[in-house]
Design a protein that fits this description.
Membrane topology: Single-pass type I membrane protein
Organism: Protea cynaroides
Low-confidence stretches: 1-23
Number of helices: 4
Family: Belongs to the KISH family.
Shape: elongated
Radius of gyration: 27 Å
Transmembrane segments: 55-77, 97-114
Largest sheet: none
Keywords: Golgi apparatus, Membrane, Signal, Transmembrane, Transmembrane helix
Protein backbone atom coordinates (compact mmCIF):
# COMPACT_ATOMS: atom_id res chain seq x y z
CA UNK A 1 0.00 0.00 0.00
CA UNK A 2 2.94 2.27 -0.49
CA UNK A 3 1.40 4.23 -3.39
CA UNK A 4 -2.17 4.34 -2.04
CA UNK A 5 -3.35 7.92 -1.83
CA UNK A 6 0.09 9.33 -2.57
CA UNK A 7 -0.72 10.34 -6.12
CA UNK A 8 2.47 8.89 -7.55
CA UNK A 9 0.85 6.06 -9.46
CA UNK A 10 4.06 4.06 -9.53
CA UNK A 11 4.08 0.34 -10.18
CA UNK A 12 1.15 -1.87 -9.23
CA UNK A 13 0.09 0.35 -6.35
CA UNK A 14 -1.89 2.75 -8.58
CA UNK A 15 -4.12 4.86 -6.41
CA UNK A 16 -7.88 4.97 -6.70
CA UNK A 17 -7.84 8.08 -4.54
CA UNK A 18 -5.49 10.13 -6.63
CA UNK A 19 -4.82 13.27 -4.62
CA UNK A 20 -4.66 15.57 -7.65
CA UNK A 21 -8.04 14.30 -8.89
CA UNK A 22 -9.82 15.21 -5.67
CA UNK A 23 -8.35 18.72 -5.77
CA UNK A 24 -8.75 19.37 -9.51
CA UNK A 25 -12.34 18.20 -9.82
CA UNK A 26 -13.87 21.39 -8.45
CA UNK A 27 -11.44 23.41 -10.58
CA UNK A 28 -12.53 21.53 -13.68
CA UNK A 29 -16.16 22.19 -12.83
CA UNK A 30 -15.38 25.86 -12.33
CA UNK A 31 -13.60 26.00 -15.69
CA UNK A 32 -16.55 24.38 -17.45
CA UNK A 33 -18.98 26.74 -15.73
CA UNK A 34 -16.92 29.79 -16.64
CA UNK A 35 -16.67 28.60 -20.26
CA UNK A 36 -20.44 28.13 -20.36
CA UNK A 37 -20.94 31.63 -18.96
CA UNK A 38 -18.59 33.04 -21.59
CA UNK A 39 -20.51 31.30 -24.38
CA UNK A 40 -23.79 32.58 -22.97
CA UNK A 41 -22.47 36.15 -22.91
CA UNK A 42 -21.16 35.86 -26.46
CA UNK A 43 -24.33 34.24 -27.81
CA UNK A 44 -27.33 35.36 -25.75
CA UNK A 45 -29.93 33.64 -27.96
CA UNK A 46 -32.02 30.97 -26.28
CA UNK A 47 -33.40 27.70 -27.46
CA UNK A 48 -37.13 27.55 -28.08
CA UNK A 49 -37.40 25.20 -25.11
CA UNK A 50 -36.16 27.81 -22.65
CA UNK A 51 -38.04 30.81 -24.01
CA UNK A 52 -41.76 30.42 -23.31
CA UNK A 53 -42.91 32.67 -26.17
CA UNK A 54 -40.79 30.79 -28.71
CA UNK A 55 -41.97 27.47 -27.27
CA UNK A 56 -45.62 28.47 -27.79
CA UNK A 57 -44.82 29.53 -31.35
CA UNK A 58 -43.23 26.17 -32.10
CA UNK A 59 -46.14 24.27 -30.55
CA UNK A 60 -48.67 26.25 -32.61
CA UNK A 61 -46.66 25.71 -35.79
CA UNK A 62 -46.46 21.96 -35.14
CA UNK A 63 -50.22 21.74 -34.50
CA UNK A 64 -51.09 23.76 -37.61
CA UNK A 65 -48.61 21.91 -39.81
CA UNK A 66 -49.77 18.49 -38.66
CA UNK A 67 -53.41 19.42 -39.21
CA UNK A 68 -52.61 20.64 -42.72
CA UNK A 69 -50.67 17.48 -43.57
CA UNK A 70 -53.44 15.26 -42.21
CA UNK A 71 -56.05 17.06 -44.31
CA UNK A 72 -54.06 16.71 -47.54
CA UNK A 73 -52.18 13.43 -46.95
CA UNK A 74 -54.19 11.41 -44.39
CA UNK A 75 -52.17 8.21 -44.91
CA UNK A 76 -49.04 9.85 -43.44
CA UNK A 77 -50.65 10.30 -40.04
CA UNK A 78 -52.60 7.07 -39.60
CA UNK A 79 -50.38 5.59 -36.88
CA UNK A 80 -51.66 6.54 -33.43
CA UNK A 81 -48.62 5.26 -31.54
CA UNK A 82 -44.88 5.70 -31.77
CA UNK A 83 -43.02 8.62 -33.29
CA UNK A 84 -45.70 9.44 -35.86
CA UNK A 85 -48.31 9.13 -33.13
CA UNK A 86 -47.10 12.41 -31.66
CA UNK A 87 -47.86 14.16 -34.94
CA UNK A 88 -51.22 12.38 -35.19
CA UNK A 89 -52.10 13.75 -31.75
CA UNK A 90 -51.03 17.25 -32.77
CA UNK A 91 -53.25 16.97 -35.85
CA UNK A 92 -56.14 15.78 -33.68
CA UNK A 93 -55.71 18.82 -31.42
CA UNK A 94 -55.76 21.04 -34.50
CA UNK A 95 -58.94 19.38 -35.78
CA UNK A 96 -60.91 19.41 -32.55
CA UNK A 97 -59.71 22.73 -31.09
CA UNK A 98 -59.39 24.61 -34.38
CA UNK A 99 -61.11 27.82 -33.13
CA UNK A 100 -58.77 27.99 -30.13
CA UNK A 101 -55.74 27.19 -32.26
CA UNK A 102 -56.77 29.91 -34.70
CA UNK A 103 -57.10 32.44 -31.86
CA UNK A 104 -53.70 31.35 -30.54
CA UNK A 105 -52.09 31.74 -33.98
CA UNK A 106 -53.68 35.15 -34.46
CA UNK A 107 -52.58 36.32 -31.01
CA UNK A 108 -49.05 35.00 -31.52
CA UNK A 109 -48.83 36.69 -34.92
CA UNK A 110 -49.96 40.03 -33.52
CA UNK A 111 -47.53 39.77 -30.60
CA UNK A 112 -44.64 39.01 -32.99
CA UNK A 113 -45.56 41.95 -35.23
CA UNK A 114 -45.84 44.36 -32.28
CA UNK A 115 -42.52 43.41 -30.67
Amino acid sequence: MKGFGSGTGSGSGTSFLHSSTSVELPLKIQRVASKANQLLKENPTMSALFNFRSFLTVVLLVICSCTYVKMHFPTLLQHKTGFRGFFWKAARIGERLSPWVAVGCFTMGVSIIIS
